[in-house]
Amino acid sequence: HSNKLNYTLTPEGHHAKLTGLEGAKAPAINKTWLEVETQYLVIQLSETLQVGKIYWLYMEFQGELANDLRGFYRSEYFEDGVKKVVATTQMEPTDARKAFPCFDEPAMKAVFHMTLIHPSVKLNIKTTITLRNQNVLQTKFKPTLKMSTYLVAFVVSEYSSIRTAAETDVLVRIWARRTAIEAGHGDYALSITGRILDFFQSYYNSKYPLPKSDQIALRDFDAGAMENWGLITYRETSLLYDPITSSNKDKEWVSTTIAHELAHMWFGNLVTMKWWNDLWLNEGFATYVSYLGVDDVQPTWNIKDLMVMTETHKAFAFDSNKFSHPLSLPEEEVKTPAQINALFNTITYSKGGAVLRMLSEFLSEPVFARGLSAYLKQFAYGNTVYTDLWGKLQEVRLSVNLPATISEIMNRWILQMGFPVVTIDTRTGNITQNHFLSDADSKPSRSSPYNYEWFVPISWMKNGTVMDRYWLLEKNGNDSTHDPLKTNSEWVLANVNVSGFYRVNYDPQNWQRLLSQLSTDHSVIPVLSRAQIVDDAFNLAKANMINMSLALRTLSYLSEEREYLPWQSAIKHLNTFINRFRHTEVNTKMQKFLWSKVQPLFHYLKNITADWTEILSSHTNQYNQLNAISLACTAGVEDCLDLTKMWYRQWMKNPDKNPIKHSMRSTVYCNGIAAGGSEEWEFAWNLYKKSVDDAEAELLIYILSCTRKPELLNRYLNYMLDPNMVQKKHVNYVIRHVANNVVGQPLAWDFIRANWSNILKEQKHASFFTILYFTTKSFSTEVELKKVCKEGLTMF
Ligand code: BES
Ligand code: ZN
Questions:
Q1: How many CB atoms lie under 10 A from the CB of residue 32?
Q2: Where in or outside the cell (predicted)?
């Protein structure tokens, strides 16, 4: 493979030279050429090479160190007014070939011997040599382990670093801009990395095979982070944590990202998928176990439960669409770099993670981990397909009672898209499954080898008692009744703690019994299940499988709820209603309803924070606090409006001494701007114009969109077209945020229609799909549909 490299031809006019080593005789080169389309350098030999002989292929080439975020690329930043350049790499999935010619496929593992010759920046390993009359340094690296090309990385920089004490087993270093390191922004990462590495060493029962683990924060970085073996690269916001200005959400992100990349050191790096069609083995795995890693270092966060929101729910949403795709695709469907890149998506990450969580739940974690360990041992430094994993798990399964082999169970989850909705009729004990599609009238876009039937592990409880797991193996087969599910007055709850990747529907009586239980004593139902009841109900209602009024009744008990997960689940669905009805005559009633539900939570949190002055110790309560304040302000509660306005005023009076805790800023200020007028808006706008910090600028870009004043929103939209006003990289955000605001939505739509050609011409960063999606996503009527079809089409 070779892409965007310019070769110096040999005297014979070839791109390469071939020499035999250790007595081997190299065949002559007939012809060499570049296949630009498929990114190959072709070397045609007069004879075939011989197995067991060693040959040396030599090439001289040049590439541009462009700031294109791919292959070997350039990144820039300013330090004390001086421009600094960083040369760094991003190979995955198919850009190692843009750094050097290579066999750029995950299964073609090799040992890399690398020597870099670079400008004489201060580095700790140095040999000075002279090259083209310049004094340069030469850095020679130890040979790598046997590894895939997409995991190779090297960075040349003037960064500083911090490191673990000399006596530690594995040397851990955090690299970043000198000022960031001096400010202590790498300290948090350093404090958790070694512990997470230790956790994975024992979870996988496999030693980290390198003597060191470097992690580096880069200004210009396309993904969130990249698991290069021994030198993990991160976007700055994914590695650096500033205890003063970062929020607990930021801390969570840094922790999960680090855990995710460290998980790859085994799953991905030591054992690699054979080809990209099984990318989910890499990414789904890292996604799942990253939550275990974070849980180990932050046991009070309840992060394993949060995974259901961040991964499972996201996957449900994506995978209930008829255009979804199976986790593992046939190899033929994944050939070109574009097809490979398209696989880094919600299915691969979130569904992959959720399905593995299900597998671990029904096998139990110790058995699952034992299987992984055996798998890693057998396939270390090699490549695998998913059946290798099923095979190993099958071997260690031991006493776990299963209705079929692991591969029979799991193939149904990974070789067909979608997931089932399980319907339980407690009047008869009947239990059935159907492919769940959010649009009940749609048909899946591809056929399935298993006819959209799954082997579903049904964990369930009856009136609060956990019952034996039941396996639902058919759609409507003979065994479609399970007698214990038949009840008179007791409620049945299935998929306890969302341990399976499916939704559940019940007969009306059982729904009613669940609702009663929620109202009388919700604590009998586990917290994740409470969140799930709400989410299932709303999604079933949207798919016309139950009445929306039933879904709404799952919210009745919320006045008693203090936990974050059910609230978050409810708020996601409530927002749809809030946006639909804000400008209708039912708004006042809706606001009243909202307040009646959130008032107790609001006051509870207000109390335990001594009138919002003290920081909550609980991670999820901090999120709760934001939800409660947002909702109370949406409900128009004076207490809340006055509070946010007052906070905002304090900030305006003293911009340098901001009294609001960072994790609360976006919510508080957004509501402050919404409750305020042009003075509040101007204040934030002036700060944006002066802002130098990325995170601060993004916060301001968001809160500016929160005003309810059309003239300000229009002004904001107009500024967006002027790069002197709104920075180009923020243009997408402006459209998105303004369109998310109920007042702003029609304005954004009118604006982009009127200015479309301008937007396209000026704004390289504005993407067609994002813009169209965000400006129309709240449309819900026939009239609006016609509007998009008619006006939308003329504009493009
Ligand atoms: N291997 C990926 C990085 C990657 C993503 C490379 C897309 C090429 C294309 C890495 O392990 C990863 O998954 N990073 C995530 C962050 C993670 C915390 C989910 C990312 O970059 O978003
Ligand atoms: Zn990953």
A1: 21
A2: Cell membrane; Membrane
Determine the Cα–Cα distance for residues 70 and 789; give it in Å rounded to an integer. Answer: 38
pLDDT digits (tens, 9 = 90+) for 669-720: 998 999 889 999 999 999 999 887 777 888 999 999 999 999 999 999 999 8
Ligand 1, atom 5: closest residue by C-alpha: 223
Give the pLDDT band (50/70/90) at residue 129: low
pLDDT greater than 90 at residue 785: no
- From CA 359, how far away is CA 746, in angstroms rounded? 45
The response to whether 325 counts as a known ligand-binding position is: no
Q: Is 283 annotated as a binding residue?
A: yes
For residue 257 and ligand 1, the question of a CB distance below 6 A is answered with yes
Beta carbons of 188 and 197 less than 8 angstroms apart: no
CB-based contact 229:151 (threshold 8 Å): yes
Section 62-69 average pLDDT: 93
261 catalytically annotated? yes
The structure tokens listed for 436 are 């769940």
Q: Is the CB of 311 under 6 A from ligand 1?
A: no
Helix extents (H) in 334-405 = 337-342, 346, 352-363, 365-379, 386-396
Protein residue whose Cα sits closest to atom 1 of ligand 1: 226
Nearest ligand 1 atom, CA 93: 8
Beta carbon of 95 within 6 Å of any ligand 1 atom: no
- The residue whose CA has the least distance to atom 13 of ligand 1 is 283
343 Cβ below 6 A of ligand 1: no
d(CA 793, CA 796): 6
Q: Relative to the alpha carbon of 284, which ligand is closest?
A: 2
> Which is the catalytic residue, given 261, 311, 561, 680?
261
SS3 430: strand
Quick one: what percent of the chain has pLDDT higher than 90?
76
Ligand 2 centroid vs 78 CA: distance in angstroms? Answer: 30
Distance from the first to the final alpha carbon of the chain: 38
Report the pLDDT value the prediction gives residue 150, as an integer from 0 to 100.
98
Q: How far is the CA of 453 from the centre of ligand 2 (A)?
A: 29
Tell how far the Cα of 283 is from the centroid of ligand 1, in angstroms: 8
Q: In angstroms, what CA-CA distances link 574 with 515, 535, 555, 579, 781?
A: 18, 11, 9, 9, 19
pLDDT at 664: 82
Instruction: Give Cα separations from 476 to 320, 432, 482 (angstroms).
Output: 21, 6, 12
How far is residue 491's CA from residue 632's CA, in Å, rounded to a whole number? 33
The string of pLDDT tens digits covering residues 471-486 is 999 877 656 899 999 9
Whether ligand 1 lies within 6 angstroms of the CB of 261 is answered as: yes
What are 80's two structure tokens?
């004390």
CA of 72 to the centre of ligand 1 (A): 18
CB-ligand 1 contact for 295 (6 Å cutoff): no
Beta bridge mates, 35 = 40
Distance of CA 465 to the CA centre of its chain: 35
Q: Can you spell out the DSSP letters for 22-74? A: TT--PPPEEEEEEETTTTEEEEEESS---TT-EEEEE--EE----SSSSEEEE
Helix (H) or strand (E) holding 203: helix 187-203
- Pick the ligand that lies closest to the CA of residue 225: 1
Could you identify the residue written with the tokens 């460290």? 262
